[in-house]
Amino acid sequence: MLILPALKKLEHLEVLSLSGIQTIDDNFLREFIISRGHNIKELVLTDCVKLTDSSMKVIAENCSKLCALDLGNLRKLTDSALGFLANACREIHTLKLCRNAFSDEAIAAFVETSGEILKELSLNNVKKAGHSTALSLARSRRLVSLDLSWCRNLTNEALGLIVDSCLSLKVLKLFGCSQVTNVFIDGHSNSDVQIIGLKMSRVLEHVRVPELQQFPLRYSSVSSI
Questions:
Q1: In whole angstroms, what is the distance from residue 203 CA to residue 109 CA?
Q2: Which positions fall inside the F-box/LRR-repeat protein 15-like leucin rich repeat domain (predicted)?
């Protein structure tokens, strides 16, 4: 891959997006991360579908400064991937796990470990997220933005617990959550949270999303190899 030597020359690189580059594999990422991972603060790997737990282990071992990570649609990842990250990457405040197959227990364990740091979390279409995840999220005091769209195992009661407990929460996305009823909408006590995506609420009311400080750095996507 012609781009790898060029990337390795960037000694002070802090932000990298490899989003959608399906030729990226474990060997590519390992070689880059071992060489330059020590400075990386934000890494976007959405749709790099060849990546496995091996890459997450390398990231955990070499990216101690990592604070924002996007792992959307990496279907080869197992619960072990979250274990590697939880044990080593203690500065992650922004995490996107969209469309992955992680178990309820693995998500809960990660959140339990990182809950004091997490500010933005997306579990969009992580279908196994359920009761255990809700219990851990309820202890995430700094969480500002949460996307639980299409997480249909989360009950009204579970969502109520999250919203009532996370007093810093400003945005909750629930697109596709057809299980949610007015029991949750009218029953929670957090007047500061904006709930976006439910059929019973008008989406245009929520166009003005609060500015989230210190969330992912701006990056330029690497579009070709």
A1: 32
A2: 48-183
